[in-house]
Automatic annotation (TrEMBL), chain A:
Name of the featured protein: Cytochrome bd-I ubiquinol oxidase subunit 2 apoprotein
Keyword Transmembrane helix set for record: yes
Source organism per UniProt: Litorimonas taeanensis
One record GO biological process: aerobic electron transport chain
Membrane topology type: Multi-pass membrane protein
GO cellular component: a single term: cytochrome complex
Membrane among keywords: yes
InterPro entries for this protein: Cyt-d_oxidase_su2
Single GO MF descriptor: electron transfer activity
Lineage of the species this protein comes from: Bacteria, Pseudomonadati, Pseudomonadota, Alphaproteobacteria, Maricaulales
Transmembrane segments: 12-39, 84-103, 115-139, 159-182, 194-217, 229-249, 261-282, 302-326
UniProtKB/TrEMBL annotation, chain B:
Main location: membrane
PANTHER family: CYTOCHROME BD MENAQUINOL OXIDASE SUBUNIT I-RELATED, CYTOCHROME D UBIQUINOL OXIDASE
Gene Ontology biological-process entries: aerobic electron transport chain
TM region(s), chain numbering: 15-36, 57-78, 98-119, 131-149, 191-210, 222-240, 323-347, 359-380, 408-432
Protein name: Cytochrome bd-I ubiquinol oxidase subunit 1 apoprotein
The species this protein was found in: Litorimonas taeanensis
Similarity field: Belongs to the cytochrome ubiquinol oxidase subunit 1 family.
Topological type in the membrane: Multi-pass membrane protein
Length: 337, 480
């Protein structure tokens, strides 16, 4: 393979990895916002917040890498996708503002605390929904003319994108509840287990519907999934998902399984991600622009690639360290009073 | 409501609005992160509790400011694509990698160590905690370096070629990163950030001194440290600003013409206009009050040096003069007031009256937010002064925007305005409230006594207890 083609594909892989890490990490902390209404007690809400306070900032940085990386490695795709998804992206940005400041503001006021809690719920849920919509809109296709977006500013809205929006909310809530199983104890943990059941079922349901819907969006997708050699993935994929789902629900009922539900939920997300990759590759904007077409020139790709190969392992290193520092369960009765 | 605006004007207003709001936060956190690292280091070295007390006082303010900087910054990183997609496509190969490096080397560093800095003192030990504080401070400076490299390339592009598909392609990364205006811009902006923080810290110190809290050692220390910082950086900044101006004159002469209000050329030495009303239509500075030949002396170090005016520049290449002219005067005016504060501060200190000088304290309180105003004015000067170009002489602003309908940009602009004023207004209120309370000896920082406990992670009852009991015992010792 040509070096520049290889490099473009490597970048696409790195970007996909960054987005996946983002989805898992910010997924569980956005999920906490979705779960907030199920924990009406102030004490429990403080606890939920405390489980992520030291790490949410790092989680969100992967989103900046996702956007920044797309701009840097595939400026053409960035310049087409962003205007096409204008409304969901702006909605996500505004939502992230509310939930981001809620982390700090709710501790600084008594009277307004419940309103910042509402900002946290609304911001997290809307951010998850917008991200799901953006995904759905990308999958269903974007109008391109020359080097620019040529559709209107409501093209993203469709039953399918609405569906993927709800799917992401459910999925993040599953990640959030399994995170809580890992990080809390007692009452909060058992409630998290019940919530994980509910949102787990919802997530599986959405995965099934979205998976059935997707091949009919584009003939290209259909061909990939239902004609040889696509059948090699089409048949095992549901089997593997069923397998993981079975173990996920089983682990939810076993009290000493604290890490397993979270890890199995991440695996579920990983499989969906691989499925997306199968549908989309080698396109970066499905059926319009390929990864290689959108790639920035070789000199730009290689300049960043060298740095990314050195820096990403270092980043992962200190991110893991930060998680390790704040490892273990958080409890109510920790205190100074 | 937006029928009379076109999408590009709305996109410009949106960018100006969101970046102006965003800029306020890093301008403060760059300096504050370093200040916190210095406070923490001083505490570890001297074991003087006043430094720890100050660290715990300012770290809460830092946490709020940092969160607002992050959330408003994410908007910026996506706005290049949403509102300026054509620019992103054309300039992406050059500036995209620089911004990716900013994420990889700076944002992750800040975010990764922020948790440990805020909540980790008792978990990781003093050395690692100090390391985390330093990494956060270091990250803010690296971030400024990359983004100013991007900005400088847009002002003085170098090291690129134009490709067939219309994109600018880098050919020499060293030239792309280190463009002619970059060192001046970086030095001027970083110093501005340190000055801004010094004036905010000094203003808060002055407030507590005016409230008669000069027996609080934390108050005295913060005021004294801020006045030292101002004494060093205020004169330095004027010097750096002058260098930056000379550099601008060399590479973007029409920006300097607009700053100076020079519509006409002055073949025998140009005056320095102190006041005037710029009129772009008639191409004159009305009611001009100026000092003859001083502009030539400052810019060319020669009283009679000829200076070209905007009459040598085609109409469609001129920046809007009034905005540039006035924002420049606001920045420079504040700069000299800052120098005044530095001089009065030094004078009061050498007379041994630093904590009793009422005039100085009132002046410093008034000047508290002056750094932020100066930073915004300076940024307006440099950004409006490069119009009508987004990339100097290469890409005009009107050819940079996304193919969007005006209602889309208008609606999002309205949403940003409402959300920003509401959310960041609340944030500023909480910050001011934290600032108005004096630093307390038993302040435990983010694990503050007000509100719930913020230690996340394991239940380190014995660990957090140790920090707490150490605090209590030290207070008791001091009482004895």
């Amino acid at each position: 393979m040509d070096v520049s083609v290889w490099l473009a594909n490597s970048w696409a892989f790195l970007l996909a990895l960054a987005v996946f890490i983002y989805v898992v990490l910010d997924g569980f902390d956005l999920g906490l916002g979705v779960l907030y209404p199920f924990f009406p007690k102030e004490k429990d809400r403080d606890l939920l917040m405390n489980t992520v306070a030291p790490v949410w900032d790092g989680n969100e940085t992967w989103l900046v890498l996702g956007g920044g990386g797309l701009f840097a490695a595939f400026p053409l795709a960035y310049g087409i996708i962003m205007p096409a998804l204008y409304v969901p992206i702006i909605a996500m940005l505004l939502a992230l503002i509310f939930r981001g400041v809620a982390f700090e503001f709710r501790w600084r006021t008594k009277r307004w605390k419940k309103y910042w809690d509402m900002a946290f719920i609304g911001g997290s849920t809307l951010a998850a929904f917008s991200q799901g919509i953006a995904l759905g809109a990308l999958l269903q296709g974007i109008k391109v003319d020359g080097r620019a977006y040529s559709g209107g500013w409501w093209d993203w809205l469709s039953p399918f994108s609405f569906l993927t929006g709800l799917a992401v909310i459910a999925g993040y809530a599953l990640l959030g509840s399994t995170w809580l199983i890992m990080k809390t104890e007692g009452d909060v943990e058992s409630r998290a287990r019940k919530l994980a059941w509910g949102f787990g079922l919802a997530t599986i349901g959405f995965i099934a519907i979205v998976s059935l819907f997707t091949p009919y969006l584009e003939t290209e997708y259909y061909r990939r999934w239902f004609e040889m050699p696509g059948l090699f993935v089409t048949i095992p994929m549901p089997v593997i998902i069923a397998f993981i789902t079975f173990y996920l629900f089983k682990s939810l009922n076993i009290h000493h399984h604290e890490y397993r539900p979270f890890i199995l939920s991440i695996l579920l997300f990983a499989l969906c991600f691989i499925g997306l990759g199968i549908s989309m590759y080698p396109y970066i904007i499905p059926t319009e622009v390929t990864i290689v077409e959108a790639a920035t020139p070789f000199i730009s790709q290689i300049f960043m690639f060298v740095g990314a190969c050195v820096l990403i392992p270092i980043i992962l290193g200190y991110t893991i360290y930060a998680y390790w520092v704040f490892r273990g369960k958080v409890s109510h009765d920790e205190g100074y009073h | 409501m937006f029928e009379n605006f076109d999408a590009i004007l709305l996109a410009r207003i949106q960018f100006a609005f969101t970046i102006a709001f965003h800029f306020i936060f890093p301008a403060f956190t760059i300096g504050l992160a370093s200040y916190l690292a210095v406070l923490n280091g001083s505490y570890l070295k001297t074991k003087d509790k006043a430094y720890l007390q100050l660290f715990n006082f300012w770290v809460k303010i830092f946490a709020i400011t940092f969160a607002m900087g992050v959330v408003s910054g994410i908007t910026m990183s996506y706005q290049f694509g949403t509102n300026w997609s054509i620019f992103s496509d054309i300039a992406g190969p050059v500036i995209g990698p620089l911004m990716a490096y900013e994420v990889l080397t700076a944002f992750f560093l800040e975010a990764g160590f922020l948790g440990i800095m805020l909540f980790g003192r008792d978990r990781v030990g003093p050395k690692l905690h100090m390391f985390a504080c330093s990494m956060v401070a270091f990250g803010t400076a690296i971030s400024a370096t990359w983004i100013l490299s991007v900005n400088s390339w847009m002002h003085t592009p170098d090291g690129y070629v134009l490709a067939e598909n219309g994109q600018y392609i880098p050919v020499d990364w060293m030239k792309v990163i280190f463009t002619p205006s970059f060192p001046y811009r970086l030095a001027h902006t970083l110093t501005a950030a340190y000055l801004t923080t010094a004036f905010i810290v000094g203003g808060v110190g002055a407030w507590h001194l005016l409230k008669g809290r000069s027996d609080n050692k934390g108050v005295r220390t913060m005021f004294s440290m801020a006045m030292w910082m101002i004494a060093i950086t205020a004169p330095l900044q004027i010097f750096l600003g002058d260098l930056h101006g000379l550099n601008t004159l060399e590479y973007q002469p029409q920006k300097v013409m607009a700053m100076e209000g020079h519509y006409e050329s002055h073949p025998e030495g140009a005056p320095l206009y102190l006041f005037g009303i710029p009129d772009d239509e008639e191409q004159t500075l009305k009611y001009a009050v100026g000092i003859p030949k001083l502009s030539s002396l400052i810019l060319k170090h020669d009283l009679n040096a000829p200076m070209a005016g905007l009459d040598t520049i085609p109409d469609d290449e001129q920046p809007p003069v009034a905005i540039v002219f006035w924002s420049f005067r606001i920045m420079v005016g504040i700069g000299f007031l800052m120098l005044g504060a530095a001089i009065v501060g030094l004078w009061a200190r050498f007379r041994g009256a630093l904590y009793d000088h009422k005039f100085l304290h009132r002046f410093m309180l008034l000047m508290g937010p002056s750094g932020l105003v100066a930073v915004l004015a300076g940024w307006i000067t440099t950004e409006v002064g490069r119009q009508p170009y987004t990339i100097w002489k290469l890409l005009r602003t009107e050819h940079s925007a996304s193919p969007l309908d005006a209602p889309a940009v208008g609606a999002s602009l309205l949403a940003f305005i409402i959300v920003y004023f509401f959310v960041f207004g609340a944030g500023v209120f909480y910050i001011l409230r934290l600032m108005s309370k004096p630093p307390k000896i038993n302040d435990m920082g983010m694990n503050a006594e007000e509100g719930p406990i913020r230690t996340a992670g394991t239940t380190p009852a014995q660990q957090t207890q140790s920090h707490h009991s150490e605090m209590i015992s030290s207070i008791q010792k001091e009482k004895e």
